[in-house]
Each structure stands twice: as C-alpha cells, then as structure tokens.
Amino acid sequence: MPSLPTHQGPNQLFQAQQAKIAFNLAHVDAVVYLVDAADKERFAESKKELDALLADDSLATVPFLILGNKIDIPYAASEEELRYYLGLSNFTTGKGNVNLADSNVRPLEIFMCSVVRKMGYGEGFKWMSQYIK
Ligand SMILES: Nc1nc2c(ncn2[C@@H]2O[C@H](COP(=O)(O)OP(=O)(O)OP(=O)(O)O)[C@@H](O)[C@H]2O)c(=O)[nH]1
After folding, report:
1. Burial class (CB in 10 A: 0-12, 13-18, 19+), 60
2. What's the pLDDT score for residue 27?
3. Nearest protein Cα to ligand 1, atom 25
4. How far apart are CA 71 and CA 115, in angstroms?
5. pTM
6. Phi-psi category of 119—alpha, beta or left, where left has phi over 0 and alpha has psi -120 to 50?
7. pLDDT tens for residues 41-71?
8. Ligand 1, residues 14, 67, 116: which to mutate, most atoms within 8 A of Cβ?
C-alpha cells in the first residue's frame, strides 16, 4: 500500500486520504459512516467526505449505514437535522425490512446512537445486515 505523505497541508492530506480510500475499496460489503452529531460545525466536512464515498463507482451498490453518534449530549443534532445537513433528505431508503433487491437503489439509512451509552447502533447494524450478501 502506498504510504501517505506526511507534513502536508489540509488539501493535500485530504487528497491523500481520498487516494487511500480509493485504494482500499476493492472488496467492500458495506460502509458504516460515523458522524459526530454534536459537532455541527463539522457537518459540512462530514458531508464532503460522505459525498466522495457516495460518488465512488466501486461503492455504487454497497449499503451505507450512517450513524449519528453522541446523542447523549443534549445539543446533538436530531436525526432530521443530520439528514438535512448531510444532504440525504431524498436518499434514505427506509428502516425495517425494505426489499431493494430488484431496484437499482443503494440501501442507505441514518440511525442515531451513543457509543458510550451503548445504544442505537445495534438497530443500525441489524438494518444493514439484511443487505449484505
Ligand atoms: N458523549 C459522548 N462521547 C463519545 C461518544 N462516542 C465517543 N465519544 C468520545 O469522543 C471522543 C473521541 O473524539 P472525537 O472528537 O469524537 O473523535 P476523533 O476521531 O478523536 O476526532 P475527530 O476526527 O476530530 O472528530 C472520546 O473521548 C470518546 O469517549 C458518545 O456516544 N457520546
């Protein structure tokens, strides 16, 4: 694997991270994307990186589980807010058992969670598991 350059500016580091991601995406069953729901100032950055993954051809059919973490913090974003700020309002495909097998639709959902409180992510992983072949 190519090593990442060190002592680079933010843009070069971002590009290097993208290159590393692209290099690693040969066999991916699913993507779990963890967002800090309490850090609203970084939602734009989270959206940018998520958009790059969603645009990656090798992930076109791969289920995406978006976890909005830290909901134990009172000022954390709600699921609706996170959906809006990540630009996913028209792209989530539904919780529960939604059969997407005969469609070209990539499974994508948001589940809110608190890793420290051990809550929320179990439902997300259960949702995702139905789409892993
Ligand atoms: N309150 C709360 N804290 C959490 C939760 N999950 C992780 N943390 C804490 O978040 C801290 C990790 O820092 P983050 O800033 O979230 O992540 P990071 O990857 O280190 O840093 P960034 O890439 O800058 O976001 C640790 O102190 C964890 O204990 C959670 O569900 N609730």
Report:
1. exposed
2. 84
3. 36
4. 9
5. 0.84
6. beta
7. 999 999 999 999 999 999 999 999 999 999 9
8. 116
**How remote is the CA of residue 120 from the centroid of ligand 1, in Å?**
16
| Ligand 1 center from residue 35 Cα (angstroms) | 10
Q: Is residue 69 annotated as involved in ligand binding?
A: yes
Q: What is the ipTM of this complex?
A: 0.92
Residue 24 burial (CB count, 10 A): 11
Please indicate if the annotation marks 115 as binding a ligand: yes
Integer distance in angstroms from the first to the last C-alpha of the chain? Answer: 27
Ligand 1 atom closest to 115 (CA): 31
pLDDT above 60: residue 9: no
pLDDT range class, residue 30, cuts 50, 70, 90: very high
Structural domains in the chain, sorted by start: 27-129 (3.40.50.300)
Dump the DSSP string for 2-18.
PPPPSS--HHHHHHHHH
